[in-house]
Amino acid sequence: MTANSLLVQNLKKFYPVKGSSEKFVKALNDVSFTLPPNTTLGIVGESGCGKSTLAKTLMGLEDKTHGSISFNDNSFDNMSNKVKYETMQMVFQDPLDSLNPRKKAWEIIADPLLINSKVSKTEALKKAQELMAKVGLRPEQSHKYPHMFSGGQRQRLGIARALILNPKVLILDEPVSALDVSVQAQILNLLKELQKDLGLSYIFISHDLSVVNYMADDIMVMYLGRVAEYGNADKVFNNPYHPYTKTLLKSGHISQSEEIKSFPKLISSELPSPLNPPTGCAFHTRCPLAKDECHSILPEVESKNERSVSCLL
Amino acid sequence: MQVEEVGFKHSVREFWDHFSDNKGAVFGLFLVLSFIVLAILAPVISPYGSSEIFPGQLRLPPFWSEGGSFQFILGTDDLGRDVLSRLIWGAQISLFVGVSIVFLSTIIGTTLGLMAGYFGGKTDIVIMRFIDILMAYPSILLAIIVVSVIGPGVTNAIIAVAIVSIPSFTRLVRANVLEIKERQFVMAAKTFGAGPWRIMFKEILPNCMATLIVQTTLGLSEGILSTAALGFLGLGVQAPTPEWGIMLSDARPYIESSPWLVTLPGLCILAVVLGLNLFGDGLRDALDPKLKR
Amino acid sequence: MTLLVAKNLQIQFKTKKGIITAVRDVSFSVESGETLGVVGESGCGKSITNMALMGLLPDNAIVTADTLSFNGVDLLSLNEKGWQDIRGGQMGMIFQDPMNSLNPCYTVEQQINEVLEIHCPEMTKEQRAEKILSLLVDVGIPAPKERLSAYPHELSGGMSQRVMIAMAIACNPKLLIADEPTTALDVTVQQQILELLEKLQNDHGMSVIFVSHDLSVVKDITKKIQVMYAGEIIESGITKTIISNPEHPYTKGLLDSIPSFHDTKDDVLFSIPGLVPDLHSRPKGCQFEGRCFNKKDDCSSSWPTITQKDDRVLRCHYPLK
């Protein structure tokens, strides 16, 4: 085990279906990964694939059904809340919605500090202003309200708030999808710079493959709560194994390889209902390469060439 | 950058821009302010004491009618007390009673609403069924029941009307909370360990303020009206306190012979309630971002 | 044939703080059967221009133009009745958020039926029912018969967008305005909607105005493109040449900010510094001057006019070579 790595093993999150004691929506099923310090894990998939549930479960906003999360060989189960918050923090998608409109910038940033440690307001203000400078905001603006900032500046506030407890891991849930392209680039650059300076690990959730490709060292493709493919980002992008990864790359127009460009179309555009997932491989209802056995046999996650893939083919 | 200079002053100015657009609201604000000034300055401007009796000067008409004089500008009542002085002191009582009612019902109603909305589940069911029970009675009837249990008097009238006003606050706040608690900043607060009470009062409540302020003004007018009704029925504030409701009720036998005795306190109630309602509506329009262009 | 002509279009809004000019000196044309891409960041005036074309601007808007004509009709002189005939009839529109654009109270069939009732009153009930079914088939909805009685909440995002498209093309419009039609959708669905739009355009010979903030989407489905900034067209021309060889510094900046146009991830992503100018106090000279890497002294004092060279229209004193 590498020091200061985040280790997630067989993480499961099942939601009970109303009116039935045996049926579950399996929002996360057997998700495992290792995140060493100073690296970025990109998580991609369509809406409903479990990306957001993963973020919430890791953050402790949802209780996990099964599995273990540990950091530096300490299980999250045995950690005090305070230590947990000092290990992992989160940046949200919508920069306006995730900042309380009735609080001043410095109060927003300093909130985690005020809650989790006994600091005076003056100290908290000073710390908040330091962080504002760090994320490229002018500390003089610390007494303004969120609506007085632009979209990109608001996301910088959100990042500053996530950094104030000096976490080792940041969960970035679609951090740039609400921003314009030119602003998006500013935020991505800032995130890369912060990673280099502070040795942070990122879990970068996005539906935009080109952004993930630019940011991530490792990549995990999820489909209906399961890992479809997980491995080194360059390798996955240049030589995807799973047909779902290939489909995503084709739709995202980012691969130049002929194999991807000529990859057959999906059979159906509709994601199956998670209430009633298909038997066998969950992707078989849409997979253009599906064979008979895919309908009945659930593919296990297999490792080959340092890559995990769950596909029978 | 234009962001630089804006601040609190700016938002007040912006608010006033929107508010002053609504002429009715400005008129309402003027009415309310004049009554507040009257109430505060009562000891200075009222010509006589509220219970000062002038023997022999019974039911004198106001100065503009035949037999009226400038000694008693608005005339005297059946016991020989100056009507103008009683109305001015009455403003003080009405505002005191109204503010106390709103203070009590806002605190209780808001807390209940926050809890019901935020915790949901059983807490929500228990609180909201209690509120439903309160709402199942016509409010004045319920107030009468409460007063008949705890007995008449200023304090008891305040308690009774406050209880009756709780549901409107609870329902309003609960609806607001249900919406706000889904927003990302509430989730963000949870990710760094904010507890439920902190989230309720520090994250959610400030965002309910606009609607609460509006409801408070409207609640104030309702409170004044209900208290007057209780007074009229003899269940609220007791004579000889110069309360507008009691003045109305005392003047009832003379409705034909001395009509000013019923008309004047009635007009006062009307003016205050109208002013508060106009002001409240204007506030709502000015504070509601959805109505802003 | 030229379907839509806008010359020197200007859109202003009366506000408390005075009149603001949201769109100015915008001239473009759409030939029939052609797809025009409109690109720009939020607040650049691309949506407002479309609203003006559809006559959907609020009452405090003032629209002026030397020419604004659609299929020979002068749009500036239309009354509300005239607009109603054009909207949904000869001009269709699809919006960004399909889930919010459908009325949750009505079934798919009722919603499409309403469009037909308004614009094709001569059709009988049976003809309409037939037409609705064929529209659903056209837009690629699986099991269309069963979907007729479905309510919007029973449809996925991609499905709802297909229904919106069916409604927009129900009366064979000459022009389809697609305002960020795929932004709210997943990539796999986005791809299919784009393919559907291309196919429908070929089948029906429609013109399409395709608005998006995402250059990588626009580049694949349009031949002509115009880039807007602060309510002005700053560059327009053939999509391919503009993307491979942008001459306006803003277009270049926009392209360089997109990670997919980069090869290695060790590059620092190019980003345009600063913010879009406040429309209440526009800069005197070039609108992009404060953020431009190629600016010279006179950029801040004189407003560049439109220059045309070959197919390319440009608003810049010092175009990139």
Structure write-up:
The complex is a heterotrimer of chains A (313), B (293) and C (321). The longest helix of chain A has 18 residues, at 181-198. The mean pLDDT of chain A is 87. Chain A has an 8-stranded mixed sheet, with helices on both faces. In chain A, strands 2-1-4-5 form a 4-stranded antiparallel sheet, with helices on one face. In chain A, a hairpin with a 7-residue loop joins β1 and β2 (24-35). Chain A is built from 11 helices and 12 strands. Chain A is an alpha/beta fold and 313 residues long. Chain A has helices spanning 51-59, 81-87, 105-116, 121-134, 151-163, 181-198, 209-215, 233-238, 243-251, 258-261, 292-296, and strands at 6-16, 24-35, 40-44, 66-71, 74-75, 88-91, 169-173, 201-205, 218-223, 226-232, 302-304, 307-309. With 293 residues, chain B is mainly alpha-helical. Chain B has a single domain, classed as Orthogonal Bundle (MetI-like fold), CATH 1.10.3720. Chain B is built from 11 helices and no strands. Chain B has helices spanning 8-21, 23-40, 42-45, 83-119, 121-136, 139-150, 154-180, 184-191, 196-232, 244-251, 260-287. Chain C has 321 residues and is α/β, with parallel strands linked by helices. Chain C folds into 2 domains: 2-90 and 171-314, 3-Layer(aba) Sandwich (Rossmann fold); 99-170, no CATH class. Helix content of chain C is 32%, strand content 24%. Chain C has an 8-stranded mixed sheet with strand order 7-8-9-3-10-11-13-12, sandwiched between helices. In chain C, strands 1, 2, 4, 5 and 6 form a 5-stranded antiparallel sheet that branches. In chain C, α8 (187-204) links the parallel β8 and β9 (207-212). The longest helix of chain C has 18 residues, at 187-204. Chains A and C meet through α6, α7 and α9 of A and α7, α8, α9 and α11 of C.
